[in-house]
Recover the amino acids of this structure.
């Protein structure tokens, strides 16, 4: 553990933002990382002790002295118990979840209690507060959420572990800055629009021998196509009218091209392109993906779906 300079030791960032963790290893809470101050209740308790001491001094009352000293002993012993409610705990960052813009990104946190002391009423906060109790030699796996606003990488920010146990007279806290960050995809457009009519979807007629039993893909509906071959799932989502094609030697493909995405701004076009990717995957289509400088060959499935969304998030 490195030695801190005077500026680092008393800098406000250390008390409220904490030290940045970049190695991903468990962090042990100790006297260098736990800070403690009286709460509003604690200040009121200290004021009461002061008033009792003054009364005892003015009236030379031994019972008032005894009560004041008894309360003072409770006050100072509580400092130790509040500190011990957190000392020795280990905190480690967990996995993050990728989300669409506007949704809450989840950041996993693992908290361990390697000691034989039960830790009661410990709390952890990112944007909202989570309460938990740790049995001796146990671990807790929590997920903290933070609402996202725009696509790209969303850092976790400062995670604060704190406690006011046992009497609420003192507030002990330890701020931690993890290196965790969640990938935020563009928010899909709310309006469902048909897939773009690219060359690969418009010129499929006549390229394949029909009538076989092997399904090879989809093409835009052509007059005279059998009604039983219509892909009703895609049509019900407002994605246009497509027919299932059988037989032939190669697969029909749908290309989702940034150049065909509607919208006035970059974010609007990415939003519509994201809508196409989500709908194509849900409809079970085989789709290619094109962004300026990037071309993903047609495929389907979770891996291809995530590659497309990641490209949109980082474009």
């Amino acid at each position: 553990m490195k030695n801190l300079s005077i500026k680092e030791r008393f800098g406000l960032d250390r008390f409220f933002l904490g030290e940045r963790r970049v190695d991903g290893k468990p962090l042990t809470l100790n006297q260098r990382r736990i800070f403690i101050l009286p709460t509003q209740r604690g200040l009121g308790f200290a004021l009461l002790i002061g008033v009792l001491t003054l009364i005892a001094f003015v009236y030379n009352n031994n019972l008032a002295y005894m009560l004041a000293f008894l309360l003072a002993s409770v006050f100072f012993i509580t400092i130790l118990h509040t500190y011990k409610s957190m000392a020795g705990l280990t905190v480690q960052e967990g996995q993050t979840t990728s989300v669409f813009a506007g949704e809450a990104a989840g950041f996993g946190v693992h908290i361990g209690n390697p000691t034989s002391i039960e830790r009661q009423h410990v709390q952890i906060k990112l944007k909202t507060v989570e309460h938990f109790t740790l049995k001796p030699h146990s671990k807790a796996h929590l997920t903290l959420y933070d609402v996202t606003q725009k696509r790209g990488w969303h850092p976790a920010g400062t995670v604060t572990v704190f406690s006011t146990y046992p009497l609420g007279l003192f507030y002990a806290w330890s701020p931690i800055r993890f290196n965790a960050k969640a990938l935020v995809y563009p928010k899909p457009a709310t309006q469902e629009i048909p897939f773009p009519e690219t060359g690969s979807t418009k010129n499929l007629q006549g390229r394949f021998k029909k009538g076989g039993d092997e399904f090879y893909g989809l093409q835009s509906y052509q007059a005279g196509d059998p009604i039983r071959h219509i892909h009703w799932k895609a049509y019900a989502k407002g994605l246009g009218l497509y027919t299932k094609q059988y037989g032939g030697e190669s697969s029909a493909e749908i290309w989702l091209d940034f150049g065909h995405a509607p919208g006035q701004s970059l974010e609007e076009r990415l939003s519509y392109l994201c809508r196409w990717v989500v709908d194509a995957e849900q409809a079970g289509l085989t789709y290619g993906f094109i962004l300026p400088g990037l071309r993903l060959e047609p495929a389907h499935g979770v891996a291809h779906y995530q590659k497309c969304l990641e490209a949109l998030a980082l474009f």
User: Anything to note?
Assistant: Helices lie at 6-10, 12-16, 40-59, 62-84, 199-202, 232-236, 266-282, 302-314. The longest strand covers residues 104-113. The two ends are 39 Å apart (CA to CA). The chain is about 30% helix and 30% strand.
